[in-house]
Write a structure and sequence with these properties.
6 helices; three-stranded antiparallel beta sheet; about 20% helix; CoA_trans_fam_I; alpha/beta
Length: about 230
C-alpha cells in the first residue's frame, strides 16, 4: 500500500531552506496549515518567497513569519488585516507582488495541471499587465500569465488517508484545492488521518498523486478574522 505519512510536522517540512518559494493554502485565516506555519517560524528559515491569498494577521498565520522577517517576497491578492505587512511593504523591507484573486487561483491550478501559461483578460490596462505579453481574442485583450513555480506547496485538509487523498470541509477548501500539487513537493496537514479505504472515493477532492507528505495536525485554533454576529432580540 502507498504510505505517504510522516511522523510529525518537523519531518513534513524537512528540506525547506532559505530562499525557497512556498505556496501556502488558506483564505484569510480559514483553512490555513497552522502547524506547518508554526514549524516554519521555529525553523528560522529566511528569505522565502510566499505565494498565498493573503498574509494572515499580525499575530497568527503567515503574519508570524512576517513578524520575524522570514519572508522576503509576498505574492498575494489581498493585503488587509495585517499592520506589520503594511509597515514592511511601505518601508521597502518586503517585496510585494499583487495579482487578481482569480488569476492567483488559476496560476496555482495551472501549475497543478502542468500548464505553463494561459491568457486572461483580468488586469489588462492596469499595472498588472506591465511587461507582459498581450493578445486579442474575439475583440477582447488578454494578458499572458505564467503558472507559478514553487519548491513546496503546503495545504490543510479536513480528512486524508495514508495515500494522500484529501477531503476539504466547507469554505476551508478555498485555495487549498488548486494549490495541492502546485509545488514540486506538496505537504498536506489534516485534521483527521484515516486508514486506507475509509474515505468514500466519490467524496475525495484531491487525489493522493498530488501529495507527497501527509501528517495529522493538532491543537488547531481556527481563528476568525472578524467575527460578525447579529444582535440577540
Amino acid at each position: 500500500m502507498i504510505d505517504k505519512r510522516v511522523k510529525n510536522v518537523q519531518e513534513a517540512i524537512a528540506g525547506i531552506s532559505d530562499g525557497m518559494t512556498l505556496i501556502v493554502g488558506g483564505f484569510g485565516l480559514c483553512g490555513i496549515p497552522e502547524n506547518s506555519i508554526n514549524a516554519l517560524v521555529e525553523s528560522n528559515v529566511k528569505d522565502i518567497t510566499c505565494i498565498s491569498n493573503n498574509a494572515g494577521v499580525d499575530d497568527f498565520g503567515l503574519g508570524l513569519l512576517l513578524q520575524k522577517k522570514q519572508i522576503k517576497k509576498m505574492i498575494a491578492s489581498y493585503v488587509g488585516e495585517n499592520a506589520e505587512f503594511e509597515r514592511q511593504m511601505l518601508s521597502g523591507e518586503l517585496e510585494v507582488e499583487l495579482t487578481p484573486q482569480g488569476t492567483l487561483a488559476e496560476k496555482c491550478r495551472a501549475a497543478q495541471c502542468g500548464i505553463p501559461a494561459f491568457y486572461t483578460p483580468a488586469g489588462y490596462g492596469t499595472e498588472v499587465a506591465v511587461g507582459k505579453e498581450t493578445k486579442d481574442f474575439d475583440g477582447k485583450m488578454h494578458i499572458l500569465e505564467h503558472a507559478y513555480k514553487a519548491d513546496f506547496s503546503i495545504v490543510k485538509a479536513w480528512k486524508g488517508d495514508h495515500a494522500g487523498n484529501l477531503i476539504f470541509k466547507g469554505t476551508a477548501r478555498n485555495f487549498n484545492a488548486p494549490m495541492a500539487g502546485a509545488g514540486k513537493i506538496t505537504i498536506a496537514e489534516v485534521e483527521e488521518l484515516v486508514e486506507p479505504g475509509q474515505l468514500d472515493p466519490n467524496e475525495i477532492h484531491i487525489p493522493g498523486i498530488m501529495v507527497q507528505r501527509i501528517f495529522q495536525g493538532e491543537k488547531f485554533e481556527k481563528r476568525i478574522e472578524q467575527r460578525t454576529v447579529r444582535k440577540r432580540n
